[in-house]
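Milestone 3.1: sequence recovery, worked example.
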C-alpha cells in the first residue's frame, strides 16, 4: 500500500499558526507559480512514521542478514564508519579553503594509503563510483596516447569475455573499439588468444584479477610484459581487490591504471545507485592526465592542486563523494596493515569453504581453489529437474537470506556466483549450505514448489517480461 492510499480527506500532520507579520510580495515570476495545489497525501504524522517504518522493515540489507552477491563484495559496514562520517556532515564545498584543511588532509592521507595498498604512484579520489572510475581511467589513457600522437592508431581495448559489463561499456564511451577475448579452458586469459589480437593498435587491456570467475590470473606477469611490449596500457578493475588486499598489489603485477571501489573493498555501504566512490590510481607516466584538483602534500601539510596542464579536467563536482572517503579512511585505520591482509585471508577461506561444501551437490564451474568467490553451473541441474537458477534464487528468499548473483558471468550458463566476504561466520555459512541442500532436495522431490517461489516475501514472483516491456514509473490513482 502506498502513502497515497492511506490518505483521508481533511487529515493533517500539523498546522502552522496564523502569521501576525506583514506578507511579503512574492518575487517569483507568475509563470513559475503553481496554479493548482500539489498532489500530496492527507495523512497524520503518525501515519507517515508508521508507513515508512513499515517499508524500512521490509527492506533487506547486510545489517539484517547474509548477502552473498558475487562480484559485489557486500561486506558489513562497521558503525564506527558512520560515526566518523557524521563529524563532517556540516562541511560545504564552497567554504573558504582555510576552513577545510582537515578534510583536505584526510583526503591526502587516504590517497597515500590507497596508493600504498595498490602499488600506484598517484591517484584521484574524484570519480563517484566504479564504472565512473573505469571511464575516468580510460579517459586518462586516451589523453596519454593523444599526447604521444598515437591516439589515431590506438583505437582498441581488449576485454575478456568474463569481464564486468561496465568494462566494454566504459571503453565504448571513451571512444574506443572493444575487442572481446575468449577465456581459456581454465577460465583465465588465453595467451594465444591475447597474442592474436595484440599489436600497436591496442590502447588498453582491461582485466580483473582475480577475475570474475574468482580465479587468479596466473599469467599476469606475462600478460603485462606482452601489453607493454607493444606499448599498450594494462587496466585493473578493482571490484575483486578484497581477495588480494594486503597480499599483493596490482601495481606490482604490471598494471598502469587501477580503479577501486571504496564502497566494496573498504566496507562503505552501496547499492541502489549510491553512495559510492571509485578512485583511480596510476603509475607516474599517467599522473599528468589525472582529473583536477589533485590533493598533494606540501611543506605545511596538504593542498589542492589545479595546475595540471594535461589534465582531462574535472569528472565530478568538487572533490568526489567525501563522506564515503571518510568511511573508507576510518576502515583502513581501524584495520591496519595486518588487518587488511587478514580480511583477504578470511574472504578466500570462506569462499573455498562454501565451494567445497556445495560441490557435493551442485556443479562448480571451475572446481579448484578459488579466491574470494566462485561460480556454480546449474545447466545440467536445470535440464534434469526443470528448476532453473532463477528458481533457486527465488526460493532462497523464503529461507530469509538474500540470493547470490545469478546469470553472471555470461560464459557460464545458468550461473550462480557466490561471494561470502570475510565478515560472515562459519555458523552463517553452514546455514546457507543447509538452505542450498534443502532446495536441492525440493528440486528433485517437488520441483513446482521451487519454480513458484517465493512465498514469504511482500511481493511474490514477478512477471519479468511485462516489467521489462511495460514498466510503470509513477503512481497513478
Amino acid at each position: 500500500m502506498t502513502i497515497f492510499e492511506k490518505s483521508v480527506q481533511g487529515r493533517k500532520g500539523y498546522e502552522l499558526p496564523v502569521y501576525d507579520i506583514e506578507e511579503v510580495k512574492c518575487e517569483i515570476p507568475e509563470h513559475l507559480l503553481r496554479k493548482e495545489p500539489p498532489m500530496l497525501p492527507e495523512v497524520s504524522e503518525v501515519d507517515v512514521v508508521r508507513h515508512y517504518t513499515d517499508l524500512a522493515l521490509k527492506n533487506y540489507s547486510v545489517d539484517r542478514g547474509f548477502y552473498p552477491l558475487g562480484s559485489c563484495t557486500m561486506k558489513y559496514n562497521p558503525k564506527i564508519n558512520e560515526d566518523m562520517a557524521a563529524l563532517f556532515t556540516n562541511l560545504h564545498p564552497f567554504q573558504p579553503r582555510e576552513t577545510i584543511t582537515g578534510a583536505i588532509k584526510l583526503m591526502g592521507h587516504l590517497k597515500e594509503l590507497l596508493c600504498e595498498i595498490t602499488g600506484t604512484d598517484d591517484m584521484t579520489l574524484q570519480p563517484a563510483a566504479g564504472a565512473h572510475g573505469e571511464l575516468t581511467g580510460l579517459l586518462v589513457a586516451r589523453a596519454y596516447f593523444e599526447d604521444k600522437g598515437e591516439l589515431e592508431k590506438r583505437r582498441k581495448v581488449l576485454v575478456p569475455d568474463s569481464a564486468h559489463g561496465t568494462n566494454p561499456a566504459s571503453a565504448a564511451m571513451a571512444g574506443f573499439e572493444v575487442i572481446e577475448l575468449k577465456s581459456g579452458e581454465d577460465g583465465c586469459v588465453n595467451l594465444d588468444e591475447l597474442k592474436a589480437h595484440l599489436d600497436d593498435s591496442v590502447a588498453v587491456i582491461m582485466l580483473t584479477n582475480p577475475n570474475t570467475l574468482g580465479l587468479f590470473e596466473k599469467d599476469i606477469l606475462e600478460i603485462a610484459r606482452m601489453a607493454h611490449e607493444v606499448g599498450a596500457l594494462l587496466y585493473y578493475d578493482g571490484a575483486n581487490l578484497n581477495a588480494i588486499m594486503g597480499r599483493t598489489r596490482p601495481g606490482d603485477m604490471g598494471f598502469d591504471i587501477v580503479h577501486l571501489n571504496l564502497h566494496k573493498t573498504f566496507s562503505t555501504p552501496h547499492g541502489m545507485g549510491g553512495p559510492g566512490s571509485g578512485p583511480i590510481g596510476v603509475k607516474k607516466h599517467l599522473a599528468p592526465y589525472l582529473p583536477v584538483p589533485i590533493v598533494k602534500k606540501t611543506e605545511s601539510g596538504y593542498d589542492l592542486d589545479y595546475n595540471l596542464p594535461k589534465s582531462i579536467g574535472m569528472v565530478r563536482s568538487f572533490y568526489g563523494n567525501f563522506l564515503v572517503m571518510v568511511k573508507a579512511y576510518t576502515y583502513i585505520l581501524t584495520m591496519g596493515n595486518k588487518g587488511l591482509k587478514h580480511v583477504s585471508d578470511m574472504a578466500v577461506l570462506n569462499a573455498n569453504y562454501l565451494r567445497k561444501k556445495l560441490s557435493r551437490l551442485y556443479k562448480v564451474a571451475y572446481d579448484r581453489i578459488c579466491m574470494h568467490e566462485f561460480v556454480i553451473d546449474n545447466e545440467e541441474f536445470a535440464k534434469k529437474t526443470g528448476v532453473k537458477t532463477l528458481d533457486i534464487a527465488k526460493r532462497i528468499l523464503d529461507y530469509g537470506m538474500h540470493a547470490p548473483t545469478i546469470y553472471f558471468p555470461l560464459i557460464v550458463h545458468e550461473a550462480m556466483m557466490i561471494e561470502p566476504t570475510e565478515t560472515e561466520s562459519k555458523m552463517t555459512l553452514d546455514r546457507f549450505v543447509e538452505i542450498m541442500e534443502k532446495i536441492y532436495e525440493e528440486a528433485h522431490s517437488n520441483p513446482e514448489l521451487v519454480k513458484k517461489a517465493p512465498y514469504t516475501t511482500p511481493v511474490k514472483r514477478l512477471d519479468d517480461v511485462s516489467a521489462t516491456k511495460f514498466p510503470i514509473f509513477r503512481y497513478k490513482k
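The CA atoms of residues 221 and 253 lie 6 Å apart. The chain has three domains: 3-58, 79-334, 343-467.
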